[in-house]
Specification:
single chain, 45% helix, 278 residues, Rossmann fold, alpha/beta
């Protein structure tokens, strides 16, 4: 119920702003994340969708391969290829690319995307994910900014499976050498764990959650002939399209099924995917 109320409030706020400024001022939206966000140009696809019905939105992103939210605030990128980056720890007085991006504008909406595994390991969630979210929120100058937690999806790795990180990648002061997620036996269990973890973070930090992970789960279980994965975790063009549809509806309060835009998706599949978020 709280999440429904938050979504209602963000839509009321954005609609009021659009009416007050009579379509002249941009609503600035920033994605912070990694390849789960930028694969197949999802933010650009979202921009094309909102342009069809509301040109006020300006979609931008600070996204880098494999980067965690914690890394966005603490790591300096020294080099980058298409699928990887080389980073080092930030030194005193330096700012990361994302810190610079955060200070560029009075952002109206910030969408936070973290790797799914980091949410499933309780210690990583506490010491890395939640710490980074709190710090990002503190860096936003616009007191009316709304924050959305991009809820991601299960991987295609076979069951049973379990994810583990060493304490050195979490917090070196921890007692044990390794920390793990619960052992996961099925797709149903994994989506349940994902939802519980994301929802607990959202409630603690007053975030709105998206339904991307649940919509991917819906496709996996109800439309198994549609593959939404590029590999074991990244979205292919269909996965990116459904993600854009989810955010289109969140931002505009309009149905994706009414859009004419289909991008590079086959018309019949595009129409099916545009109806999934409803």
């Amino acid at each position: 119920m709280k999440n429904v109320l938050l979504i209602f409030l963000i839509l009321v706020s954005l609609n009021s702003k659009s009416q007050d400024i009579k379509g002249t001022e941009k609503i600035n939206v920033l994605f912070i994340g990694n390849s789960l966000t930028y694969y197949h140009d999802m933010p650009e696809t979202l921009q094309k969708m909102v342009n069809e019905t509301n040109s006020n939105f300006r979609i931008e992103h600070s996204t880098f391969p494999g980067m965690s939210l914690f890394g966005h605030l603490n790591n300096i990128i020294e080099s980058r290829t298409e699928n990887s980056i080389n980073t080092r720890q930030k030194r005193e007085g330096e700012k990361t690319k994302t810190e610079i991006k955060l200070s560029e504008k009075d952002w109206d909406i910030v969408i936070l995307q973290e790797g799914t595994v980091r949410l499933l390991i309780p210690e990583t969630k506490k010491y890395r994910v939640e710490t980074a979210i709190a710090q990002i929120k503190n860096r936003i100058s616009n007191q009316d900014c709304k924050f959305i937690l991009f809820k991601t999806w299960p991987s295609k790795e076979e069951y049973p499976k379990q994810y583990c990180y060493s304490k050195w990648s979490i917090n070196s002061s921890l007692e044990n050498d390794t920390y793990c997620s619960p052992e996961i036996e099925s797709l149903e269990q994994e989506i349940k764990l994902i939802n519980e973890s994301y929802d607990s973070v959202a409630e603690k930090h007053d975030l709105i959650t998206s339904e991307n992970g649940n919509k991917v789960y819906e496709i996996l279980t109800e439309y198994p002939d549609i593959n939404v994965y590029e590999d074991d975790i990244h979205p292919n063009k269909y996965g990116a399209f459904i993600n854009a549809c989810v955010f289109y509806q969140m931002l505009t309060n309009k149905k994706a099924s009414e859009l004419k835009f289909i991008g590079e998706i086959e018309p019949n599949i595009a129409e099916l995917l545009k109806n999934i978020p409803e």
